[in-house]
Design brief:
single chain; alpha/beta; Rossmann fold; OB fold (Dihydrolipoamide Acetyltransferase, E2P); 2 domains; five-stranded parallel β-sheet; five-stranded antiparallel β-sheet; 27% helix; 32% strand
């Protein structure tokens, strides 16, 4: 498990201290660092890291502001001097929340969680995650509690992120599966499924209407009546994909 990481913190000493602690973990490669949210956003988009170590209180935008502007979120480990943000950190699916000064043992625990996050459990036993590509004609098994479905991918109109789960929309059903949107996106054919924003992947064949929206974004109306906003950044990609 080799992971590329970016450290985003306005304190140079804190960045240096964390880099020093991370030398004990050869599986984590620090590829860059940033001193504020805007710089961090640019570097995340340019370098596509697997993991970010993110301070919360920075001049200008906070760490939470940065996350809200990303279409795809890497794994996040918050590093902060304040403990009052812990609950909100877990609401945005942070992997861990480390209080400064960071203790080596807590850092080791956080990185262990990163390794565990790569495994799926069946009856308590870790298995390797299936990462094979799926086509729209493939059928997938969906289980939510006692209910089970065998669904053709082309019949799924929308995936929506709900915490650590994804809600799968097909017909009148909206079951939850224990999958992140990023993991789903890796296996879905981008010619059929499009990442509209941080929370939604839409089936392009199910779009019934496209309208301009705020700040250069788009509003998609999906078969069944759901309306999904396309972020400004993804709207550019959408127009390129869908134009002749």
């Amino acid at each position: 498990m080799n992971k590329k990481a970016i450290i985003i913190d306005d304190e140079r000493l804190a960045r240096n201290e964390l880099k020093k602690l991370l030398t004990e973990f050869p599986e984590i490669e620090v590829i860059d660092e940033a001193s504020n949210a805007d710089e961090g956003l640019q570097k995340i988009e340019a370098l596509n890291p697997d993991l970010i170590f993110l301070d919360i209180q920075m001049p200008g935008k906070t760490g939470f502001d940065l996350l809200s502007e990303l279409d795809r979120t890497p794994e996040v480990i918050f590093t902060t001097a304040y403990d009052e943000y812990a609950l909100r950190a877990f609401e945005v699916n942070a992997l861990d929340y480390l209080l400064k000064p960071i203790e080596p043992k807590r850092l080791a625990d956080a990185i262990h969680k990163l390794e565990e996050d790569e495994k799926e459990l069946i009856d308590g036993e870790p298995i390797s995650v299936n990462r094979s590509m799926l086509s729209e004609n493939d059928q997938v098994f969906v289980k939510d509690g006692e209910r089970c479905w065998f669904v053709k991918l082309s019949d799924i109109r929308l995936f929506e992120s709900v915490g650590n789960y994804a809600k799968v929309y097909f017909g009148p059903n909206k079951p939850l599966i224990l999958k992140s949107l990023n993991a789903l996106e890796e296996r879905l054919d981008e010619k059929t499924f499009f990442r509209a924003n941080r929370k939604h992947i839409v089936n392009l064949r199910m779009i019934e209407k496209v309208e301009p929206y705020f700040n250069g974004g788009l509003l998609l109306e999906i078969h069944g009546g759901d309306k999904i906003e396309v972020s400004r950044r993804q709207a550019v990609k959408f127009k390129e994909m869908m134009s002749l």
